[in-house]
Write a structure and sequence with these properties.
The protein has 352 residues and is mainly alpha-helical. The chain folds into 2 domains: 43 residues, no CATH class; 224 residues, MetI-like (MetI-like fold), CATH 1.10.3720. Helix 1 packs antiparallel against helix 14, helix 5 crosses helix 8 and helix 9 runs antiparallel to helix 10. The longest helix has 38 residues. It is globular.
Length: 352
């Protein structure tokens, strides 16, 4: 097993390079650039300060309103040209970026004007809280529910629960978020939960347990939207896995020995039925980057999902590449963790 882990760790290096190189090329080839964004801000600032007089924004500076020296300085600052003003290729800029990554230097955000690591770490707690909580709740609910559905397969409970699960699965996160806000948070129907944000405006004035209750109220609706996508999938997968296992010979043998149904299902069948479910547990490492753009936008949550779309709109290349790098690294580590969990759940598996 140790040799396999080392081999997988070495294979992560070329895989990570391939992912980041492809992402770097796609991001840089997209229309617009940080220079365009900065020039637009300069033009807007010049237009607002120049008023209607002067006839041309920053007068004497061409149709764009910005001098060539400023454009050249911005291109050099953002690494699009070298010291001599010559354009740098995407591959040359990628080599500079990867060399900086080896020194743990992710650069500064063009939009926030802070180190990329500081920007990402400031948004991480929100996505980590919702991603981890949604993942834990999904497994705690879906595994027992899938087992019960397998035991009571074909009964009224199984049919009704399956219908409800597939209806929930068919509702997009955007529609679910809008419906939840309208009926359970808006003033028109049942304002049980807050409209958005993480805490109330008077959070600092509340007592300790009132603060906890306030956070729970704000988290309920976003968590429901986070869980909708995986809830049905995990439950049905657990049910099908359990149905396959209880048909095997060793389960029938356990019944023939006179063991109770509880012992047969929970001791003999459940462990092997969990093997397919384990594949998703490796995602616990990358759950902090599992922010949903839609959910965070609807409920005004300042997390990783909102950071991604904001950085993309601002062409903040350094932040985007930082997100790609960390998410890819944690995803690859999660796949390795999944293989290790396979061996823990089923010692018969041998990757060597």
């Amino acid at each position: 097993m140790g040799t396999y882990i080392l081999r997988r760790l070495f294979l992560m290096i070329p895989t990570l390079i391939g992912i980041t190189l492809l992402s770097f090329a796609i991001i840089n080839l997209a229309p617009g650039s940080p220079v365009d964004q900065k020039l637009q801000q300069i033009r807007m600032g010049g237009a607002m300060s120049g008023g209607s007089g002067g006839g041309g924004g920053l007068g004497g500076r061409g149709e764009t309103g910005v001098s060539k020296e400023v454009v050249d300085a911005l291109n050099k600052q953002y690494g699009f040209t070298d010291e001599n003003g010559n354009p740098r290729s995407i591959f040359a800029r990628y080599k500079t970026w990867i060399a900086n990554i080896l020194r743990l230097d992710f650069g500064d955000s063009f939009k926030y004007e802070e180190p990329v690591t500081s920007v990402i770490l400031s948004k991480m707690p929100v996505s980590l809280m919702f991603g981890l909580t949604a993942m834990i709740l999904s497994y705690l609910i879906c595994i027992p529910l899938g087992v019960i559905k397998a035991i009571r397969s074909g009964t009224k409970f199984d049919l009704v629960s399956s219908f409800i699960l597939f209806v929930l699965y068919s509702i997009p996160a955007l529609i679910a978020g809008i419906l939840l806000r309208t009926f359970l948070a808006g003033q028109s129907f049942y304002p049980i939960f807050p409209l958005g944000n993480l805490v109330s405006d008077n959070y600092a004035d509340l007592a300790f347990w009132s603060q906890i209750f306030d956070r729970v109220k704000h988290a309920v609706l976003p968590l429901v939207c986070y869980m909708l996508g995986s809830f049905t999938f995990l439950t049905i997968m657990m049910q099908n896995s359990m149905l396959d296992v209880i048909k095997l010979d060793y389960v029938r043998t356990a019944r023939a020995k006179g063991l109770s149904e509880k012992v047969v299902y929970l001791k003999h069948a459940l462990r092997n039925a969990l093997i397919p479910i384990v594949t998703g547990m490796g995602g616990i490492l990358s759950v902090m980057f599992a922010g949903s753009i839609i959910v965070e936008s609807i409920f005004s949550l300042d997390g990783m999902g909102l950071l991604s779309i904001t950085s993309a709109n601002a062409r903040d290349y350094n932040v985007l590449m930082g997100l790609v790098f960390f998410q890819s690294l944690l995803f690859l580590a999660g796949r390795l963790l999944t293989d290790i969990l396979f061996v823990v759940v089923d010692p018969r598996i041998d990757f060597t």
